[in-house]
Amino acid sequence: MTRKEFESIMATYKKGTYISMMWETITNNGRKVSKGVVRFTNIEVKTNKQGDDYVVARITKNNKQITHVTYFNAQGEEIEKGEYEANNKNYNITDFFAKHLENIIQLG
Fold first, then answer.
1. N or C, fewer C-beta in 10 Å, the chain?
2. How far apart (Å, rounded) are the C-alpha atoms in residues 96 and 39?
3. Number of helices and strands (H, E) in the chain?
4. Cα–Cα nearest to 21, from 3, 36, 9
């Protein structure tokens, strides 16, 4: 997703509104695609030192809105969670997480 696409979508939402988002996490040993409900308490697009645009999202604490994740190996074949975690570092998101705009697949 580009900065312009993100800003045009977020222009229709109020700050703090829950929104459906699909994003991917890419590693050397594969990737995972996640889909869940997030909230943007600050819709400002930020830029890191490397020049990558990113946003900070907050996960929902509602147990009925669980994030669904699909795991893939380096060849693009779907694999199980255990196999993915055996080859990749596991991150535990407790409240906020940052995501590069280029890794956001779908918003809204």
1. C
2. 9
3. 2, 8
4. 36
Query: Can you tell me which residue has the tokens 């596991």?
Result: 90
Distance CA 85, CA 83 (A): 6
> Taking the model in full, what pTM does it have?
0.87
Measured CA angle at 93 (ends 88, 96), to 5 deg: 135
DSSP for residue 41: S
d(CA 74, CA 36): 23
The Cα 92–Cα 16 span in angstroms is: 22
Q: Rounded to whole angstroms, how far apart are CA atoms 27 and 88?
A: 7
> What digits encode the pLDDT tens for the residues 34-73?
999 999 888 899 999 999 999 999 988 888 888 899 999 9
